[in-house]
Amino acid sequence: MNAAYPAADLAADANATPAPSARPRAVVFAYHNVGVRCLQALLGRGVEVPLVVTHQDNPRETIWFASVAKLAASHGIPVITPEDPNTDDVLAQVRAARPDFLFSFYYRYMLKAPLLAAAPRGAFNMHGSLLPQYRGRVPINWAVIHGETETGATLHQMNEKPDNGALVDQMAVPILPDDSAQDVFEKVTVAAELVLWRCLPALLAGTARLTPQDLSQGAYFGGRKPEDGRIPPQLGAAALHNFVRALTHPYPGAFADLPEGRLVVWQTRHAGPLRDGAQPPSAVTLLVAEGHLQLVCPDGGVLRVTDATLEGAPLEAGHFATHFAQAAVSLAR
User: Fold this and answer.
1) Which one, 19, 52, 65, 195, has least CB within 10 Å?
2) Of 290, 250, 286, whose CA–CA distance to 268 is shortest?
């Protein structure tokens, strides 16, 4: 589904900014880089933001992204960081802000009906996929894992079901064969900013055309935990390459627990099939060939390992014999 909606359907003048005397108000729930860029787009279009709701950074999480709280503070916007947004206290603060609109930009919690109803002109969410594809959590990682060649950003109306409401606008971006999830996330962040910027004039004017989703054209995906990075030993080479690049830095990585310690594979490159006559292993196998670390897969495909660690220390071809007594190590161990 490539659904870059015609700009003519969104606004008569995509560069128009609402007059200061008629500034609409929006409460923004936001986090991460998408939250920062989309909040900047709202402010750039002249939207008044009386309240921002965001998350406190988790000290156990690698914070590689920009801060919505810092951006809001730099504009003098009040910020709250509730553990649960769906409380009477938060609802009272949102209502007191008298929003026309409510926006959610990579905010991590579902917003329930009372909050959605607090904005009379609608509640809208920016999602990191081409809805209705990849509804739910971590859509970019899932798209890379599945070997998709494109994804995108979608602004849609919110209701009580996740990623279920009518579409306002969306934009596709390519996923190149060696792109990591972070590479794709950076593209999706730009797409999110562009989508919001071009559809805001029509949305604020009340002339935007909303398109109901055909939910049969996509599926829902759940969240992922670090333990989900364990390498399935039966993966073929293409699927394993996708798995590695979907989970590499800044995410916890694709790993296998061996007697010698935890192996984390951070980057691979396709190295072609096994040579004629060579027998594929029954499970993904790590070895050294032609001076390089390689992963040989049950489908006969070979990946060159260009970045890996063993128990947190770099693992290179010259280190292999130091750590492993055998010439080839099965990841099924």
Assistant:
1) 19
2) 286
- Please give the class, per CATH, of domain 226-330: alpha beta
Residues 132-179 have pLDDT tens digits of 999 999 999 999 999 999 999 999 999 989 999 999 999 999 999 999
Distance separating alpha carbons of residues 18 and 15, to the nearest angstrom: 10
List pLDDT tens digits, range 237-290: 999 999 999 999 999 999 999 999 999 999 999 998 998 778 999 999 999 998
Give 7-221's CATH code, choosing from 3.40.50.170, 3.40.50.720, 3.40.190.10, 3.40.50.620: 3.40.50.170
Cα–Cα distance, 322 to 271 (Å, whole number): 24
Paired with 307 in beta bridges are: 267
Q: For 22, which DSSP code?
A: G
Task: Compute the distance between CA of residue 136 and CA of residue 184 in angstroms, rounded to an integer.
Answer: 17
* Contact of 134 with 153, CB cutoff 8 Å: no
pTM: 0.90
Q: How far apart are CA 128 and CA 116, in angstroms?
A: 20
